[in-house]
């Protein structure tokens, strides 16, 4: 979706060829391209869903924590703005945030949902990323699209 939006707006962009876990490759790519902004949508949820991360914890850590930290760290060093497309699955309603109360979570709130290994990796990552001033985190929660991609909710008629 990001690619389509960038193409439609006529923006110049490059798709990374490196894996975010490979610091040297990411650093070389940033040096070669010299971007002003990085959009990081890398990470693993697993197949068919986040339950995969329970039995593939090392792969989940490499991508969801180490890889994202690597990209943010290199962007910080080079003073490049980094937007991380992350998840909203790190918060759950509690006594202070009840359904319908209108009281949302703030950037100062610590993630309070760790009911899956996937959410644990993402919550841990967000706490660590607070040290990087050039990284902005966007939390997507169950994005909705009208296409019939196999990972979307529901099935084609």
The CATH architecture category of one domain equals 3-Layer(aba) Sandwich
Give the spatial strand order of the biggest sheet.
Answer: 1-2-3
The overall average pLDDT, rounded, is 87
Morphology:
globular
Summarize the biggest pleated sheet: 3 strands, parallel
CATH homology-level superfamily of one domain:
NAD(P)-binding Rossmann-like Domain
Q: Evaluate the radius of gyration.
A: 17 Å
CATH topology of one domain: Rossmann fold
> Could you tell me the strand content as a percent range?
5-15%
Order of helices and strands: HHEHHEHE
Structural class: alpha/beta
Distance between the termini: 23 Å
The count of helical stretches stands at 5
Assembly context of the chains? single chain
Number of strands: 3
Helical residue percent?
A: 25-40%
Under CATH at level 1, the class of one domain stands as Alpha Beta
| Unreliable stretches | none
